[in-house]
Automatic annotation (TrEMBL):
Record family assignment: Belongs to the DNA glycosylase MPG family.
EC number from the UniProt entry: 3.2.2.-
Species name: Streptomyces solicavernae
Entries under NCBIfam families matching the protein: 3mg, PRK00802.1-3
Record-level Gene Ontology MF annotations: hydrolase activity, acting on glycosyl bonds
Enzyme class: hydrolase
Listed CDD domains: AAG (cd00540)
Source superkingdom: Bacteria
SUPFAM superfamilies linked: FMT C-terminal domain-like (SSF50486)
Annotated keywords: DNA damage, DNA repair, Glycosidase, Hydrolase
Pfam families: Pur_DNA_glyco
Hydrolase in keyword set: yes
Protein name, per record: Putative 3-methyladenine DNA glycosylase
């Protein structure tokens, strides 16, 4: 993956990441997942972004150069992974919401559970990280050097197969069309409106 492809606003990069591949190497083995669903978060201009109120020790990676991994814990329980985009100093990141395991399925199933069906192994951002083996120790990893976690280009995805829609589970700016996914792909997570979000007028 070329850093020039990532050095743009998150909402431009998010659909481009569909079809790309994240690979994580651990002592247990290697798992690779092709991305099928993403969400863009535009930093200080985005009320739903972790960086909306400025830089903190937690979100510092988001303000760094494109091509690094921003990992955070959701609700104190699950890890979620983001690809940092944009220019250095301007927070911008793309949340990886779902994908299809293309290498290391046995290891991914061991991590997720023996009864989990193939399409559900990496469906949802927490499950994606669990299947891949991503934890807090990977926060800040340079995805372009390919040391422990690497991002690579996959097969190009035709524009006709990409759908945009509102983001999942956020209460602020939830109606922004910054979620991108592959139409009809069984690995894509279901849309859920946050119970704290106000439905659009007339809904």
């Amino acid at each position: 993956m070329n850093v020039d492809l990532l050095a743009h606003p998150a909402e431009e990069v998010a659909p481009r990441l569909l079809g790309s591949v994240l690979t994580c190497k651990t002592p247990e083995g290697t798992v690779s997942i092709a991305v099928t669903e993403t969400e863009a978060y535009s930093g200080t201009a985005d009320p739903a972004s972790h960086a909306y109120r400025g830089q903190t020790p937690r979100n510092a990676v988001m303000f760094g150069p494109a091509g690094h991994l921003y990992v955070y814990r959701s609700h104190g329980l699950h890890w979620c992974a983001n690809v940092v985009t944009g220019t250095d100093g301007m927070a911008s990141a793309v949340l990886i919401r779902a994908g299809r395991v293309i290498e290391g399925e046995d290891l991914a199933r061991k991590r997720r559970g023996a009864k989990v069906e193939g399409p559900r192994l990496a469906r949802g951002p927490a499950n994606f990280c669990q299947a891949l083996g991503i934890t807090a120790e990977h926060n800040g990893t340079d995805l372009l050097t390919g040391a422990s976690v690497a991002l690579s280009e996959g097969k190009p995805v035709p524009a006709a197969l990409i759908q945009a829609g509102p983001r999942v589970g956020v209460s602020r700016a939830h109606d922004w069309q910054h979620r991108f996914y592959l139409v009809g792909d069984p690995t894509v997570s279901a849309y859920r409106l946050s119970p704290r979000a106000k439905p659009p007028a007339g809904a």
